[in-house]
Design a protein that fits this description.
single chain; about 325 residues; alpha/beta; Rossmann fold; about 25% helix
């Protein structure tokens, strides 16, 4: 399996008021992005908000049509797909979304939620569908009997496991992970990341993980791409997969100021925590009251009358 995007571009029109007839300009959400992911690989997409990461995911899920560029699946262009090819692609490419609380229908039982991606014309009987649902639930570490329960009867981490099971039920080859652990407690994130890595090794899955958390992306990704917005804040720029996660060269865009139309590829390793912050990152660590940092005052603010008012205190 190989999924390849070549020069993907997506522009959104800027309209005036409630009228959709005329556009005043275009928002360049993606501009010439080229990436590829093969079986067993994980491509990490990192970047600040508004840099087009989710737009890229929507294009790969066929939820949006690109303005320009092409998308290839196993060497065949998506635009040339017949109906059967399109159905095969949708079964092979699945997604796990960020918030397990809003991505699961609270009125549906877990068994129905997990079975929802299965097409009605798949030829599976009701008993076979039930068996497959219980199989993937067990695969993600949930009891088989959990299919009869509702989402509110599970914790946040268990709900994300349900979302992963729903993505696995069609036996996919490629899964898009859109911030898969950002909505979870810190203590649960490592469990979900370990589960995803285990499933990849066992099933030969390919991942694309979208994340603001560089540690999570670094843990899963075999290659990394950094999307950088333009200086005008209107568009992300070109992205490409980095061959490694090593520190970039001195003349690399990551070490230069971000320029419009340039790709920030590669990622420097995060620096070690300073000794003063290290105790906060150890499980069960507590900071003594006499070690608390002093309050700092904000600079004077300009009020409506044009005079200054003293800043208020806050914790750093």
């Amino acid at each position: 399996m190989k999924l390849e995007a070549i020069g993907l571009t997506k522009y959104f029109p800027v309209t005036s008021g409630f009228s959709m007839s005329g556009s005043r300009g275009w928002v360049k959400a993606l501009d010439g992005v080229s990436v590829q992911v093969a079986e067993g690989e994980t491509l990490g997409i990192v970047g600040e908000s508004g840099s087009g990461k989710t737009t890229l995911a929507r294009l790969l899920l066929l939820l949006e049509r690109p303005t320009a560029g092409s998308l290839l699946f196993d060497g065949k262009a998506i635009g040339d797909f017949e109906r059967d090819d399109l159905a095969r692609y949708r079964r092979a490419v699945q997604a796990v979304f960020q918030d397990p609380y809003s991505s699961l229908n609270p009125r549906m039982r877990v068994g129905d939620i997990v079975a929802e991606p299965l097409p009605r014309g798949s030829g599976l009987s009701r008993a076979e569908v039930s068996d497959r649902v219980r199989e993937v639930l067990q695969l993600v570490g949930l009891p088989r009997e959990g299919a009869a329960l509702y989402p509110h009867e599970f914790s946040g981490g268990q709900r994300q496991r349900i979302a992963i099971a729903r993505a696995l039920v069609t036996y996919p080859k490629f899964i898009i992970l859109d911030e898969p652990v950002s909505a979870l407690d810190v203590s649960i994130r490592a469990q979900i990341l370990n589960l995803l890595k285990h499933l990849q090794e066992k099933l030969g899955l390919a991942y694309m993980i979208i994340s603001h958390d560089l540690a999570a992306a670094r843990y899963l990704a075999t290659r990394l791409a950094v999307t950088a917005p333009s200086l005008h804040g209107s568009a992300p720029v070109r992205g490409a997969a980095a061959p490694s996660l090593g520190a970039p060269a001195a003349d690399h865009p990551v070490r230069r100021s971000t320029q419009p139309g340039k790709a920030a590829v590669g990622l420097p390793l995060p620096p070690a925590l300073p000794p003063s912050l290290a105790p906060l990152h150890r499980p069960g660590a507590r900071v003594a009251r006499d070690q608390a940092q002093p309050l700092h005052r904000l600079p004077p603010l300009l009020n409506d009358t044009g005079t200054t008012t003293p800043g208020t205190a806050r914790d750093e």
